[in-house]
NB-ARC domain-containing protein
Amino acid sequence: MQELHKFKFNIPNYKIVVTSRKAFSRFKFRFKLNPLDHEDAMRLFCHSASMQDGSSYILEEDMEKIVRYCGGLPIALEVIGGSLCGQPVEVCQSKVMGWSEGHSIFDSDNEVLARLQKCLDFSADKIILKEYFMDLGSFPEDQ
């Protein structure tokens, strides 16, 4: 909250969007975003993994698990889908097996973190990327 003053500009009518899992009482306009429902999450994952053009093949049961592990979070679905695009079925199955054994999606693959970094365009020396991305990809409370 204290860092917001850095983003003040001498430009009329600009807006700053603050996102957080917690509500800030200082802001009067709030919009609660819910995770994607299963159908939309599956559609986004399939698009991100290039399932529609046949360049990827992921077993239906593995897709269901991956979408569930991503908790309806668009950035997680995009990044995980992109990281699995074009991979052999065995690679997908191996990753899904690791995630089902309690390993975090973000612990399992440096490529996922690299894709998140590229997606958000932050330099590694300014923030601790792994912690930041884990915050972004955290599952909503009680889910």
Observations:
- Helices lie at 38-48, 60-70, 74-84, 89-100, 110-120, 129-136.
